[in-house]
Automatic annotation (TrEMBL):
SUPFAM superfamilies: ATPase domain of HSP90 chaperone/DNA topoisomerase II/histidine kinase, Homodimeric domain of signal transducing histidine kinase, PYP-like sensor domain (PAS domain). The lineage of its organism: Bacteria, Pseudomonadati, Pseudomonadota, Alphaproteobacteria, Sphingomonadales. This is histidine kinase. Residues 177-415 form the Histidine kinase domain. Pfam families: HATPase_c, PAS_4. Residues 25-95 form the PAS domain. It comes from Novosphingobium decolorationis. Keywords: Phosphoprotein. Signal peptide: none annotated. It is an enzyme of class 2 (transferase). PROSITE patterns: HIS_KIN (PS50109), PAS (PS50112). Its EC number is 2.7.13.3.
Length: 418
């Protein structure tokens, strides 16, 4: 009796241990199933639901207890239930069903698309005793694909913008080098023209003096034939015109060097009106279809600031206005400047499509652009905004009365003005 009792106790202990292990395994499998975002449905051989997970409960809005025992086909849209039944027969025949798209019948008549796999559920290693449905909600998958696609597009756009930014930096270095090389021949032209002007004045005085002396008829005839008097009248204006052209070239070269230089500028007093007109000429000459420019600029409008940075801001604002008018008939750019107390204002407005309300809080962010990839860096307004702040001013967007965009630059008229 003692031996029998001892064996019973050992058996009971072993049974309790197995029961505990079985409970732990059940809980483990349940926690894994509930943690899955995919739908899992275990059915018997007739297709009645034996077990499911929380993913299906969340989608259908019913408890697991309410789902147990129901036919699995009834979970799907009425028009697809025959397809589900046929797929179960395929599994009975030994074929795995992979990625079939069906709709779950959700509360309120809504349908949730899922990509479904069906595999046989086995007891032991051979005997099939039912089915296992595994479905992935395509809404979540499509959202993941969409987020991935957006991230890829953003990365591609950023790469294009960085490439364009590097090209612009290389172009700036090239422009600085060209401007430096042009400086020497321009200096030669200036020196030679000033010398030629002195020589011309000396020759004119000599010829005038010889003209007062008794003249030789042959020399008089030659003077008339060569039109010496006409040459004496033209030589002064020709030299002055050449010097004026050389001065314009020198100013352009200085603007190019200032525009492309990374060195800190010293403030200087200059005519803002002349600077803005120069910037507009630069931009207009590069346009395939030049818009109509309208200027309301007092002349002179003197300010004390950093000329190169202000020139770059003007170029960026006018270029943006021209880009907004690309492909648009009767495009107009209005450039206005005025002084109010200690501040000077510059407004660049266009009659283009304007800026969408959803984008207005992003226009001064780096790399933000509505232009096609490769057409813009998204840095023009960002750079201009920061330059304006460094100059002690501000740059703001305003809606144009004509429906386009308007950017207003406010700057202190003198150095040190808040």
């Amino acid at each position: 009796m003692d031996a029998v009792y001892s064996e019973l106790v050992e058996s009971q202990t072993a049974l309790e241990e197995q029961h505990r292990e079985l409970g732990e395994a059940h809980d483990f499998i349940g926690s894994v199933l509930d943690a899955m975002t995919d739908v899992v449905i275990a059915c018997d051989a007739e297709g009645h639901i034996l077990r499911t997970n929380r993913a299906l409960v969340r989608i259908l809005g019913e408890s697991e207890e309410a789902l147990l025992g129901r036919e699995v086909e009834a979970l799907f849209a009425p028009g697809e239930r025959k397809d589900v039944h046929a797929a179960m027969n395929e599994v009975r025949a030994g074929t795995l069903v992979d990625q079939r798209e069906w709709h779950l019948q959700m509360p309120g008549g809504a349908l949730g698309l899922i990509s479904t796999n069906i595999a046989p559920r086995r007891e032991g290693s051979v005997r099939s005793c039912g089915f296992v449905f595994v479905g992935r909600p395509l809404g979540e998958l499509q959202r993941a694909y969409r987020e991935l696609d957006e991230a890829h597009s953003t990365l591609k756009r950023t790469q294009e913008q960085l490439l364009m930014s590097e090209k612009m930096a290389a172009l700036g270095r090239l422009v600085a080098g060209v401007a430096h090389e042009l400086n020497n021949p321009i200096s030669f032209v200036f020196g030679n023209m000033y010398a030629l002007k002195r020589y011309g004045e000396a020759i004119a005085r000599y010829l005038e003096a010889t003209g007062r002396a008794p003249s030789d008829p042959e020399l008089e005839a030659l003077r008339t034939q060569l039109r010496i008097d006409r040459i004496l009248e033209d030589i002064g204006p020709l030299v002055d015109g050449t010097l004026e052209g050389a001065e314009r070239v020198r100013d352009i070269v200085q603007d190019l060097r200032r525009f492309s230089s990374n060195q800190e500028e010293t403030p200087e007093t200059f005519n803002l009106t002349r600077l803005v007109r120069t910037a507009a000429e630069w931009v207009a000459k590069a346009q395939r279809a030049r818009p109509d420019f309208h200027f309301e600029l007092p002349d002179p409008l003197d300010v004390t600031s950093r000329k190169g940075q202000l020139h770059q801001i003007a170029v960026n604002l006018i270029q943006n206005a021209c880009d907004a008018l690309e492909g648009r008939e009767a495009g107009e750019v209005q450039v206005t400047a005025w002084r109010e107390g200690a501040l000077v204002y510059l407004e660049v407005a266009d009659n283009g499509p304007g800026i969408a309300p959803a984008n207005r809080d992003k226009i001064f962010e780096p790399f933000f652009t509505t232009k096609p990839i490769g057409s813009g860096t998204g840095l023009g307004l960002y750079v201009s905004y920061n330059m304006a702040a460094k100059l002690g001013g501000s740059l703001a967007y305003a809606e144009n009365a004509s429906g386009g965009a308007s950017f207003i630059l406010a700057l202190p008229a003198g150095e040190g003005t808040p």
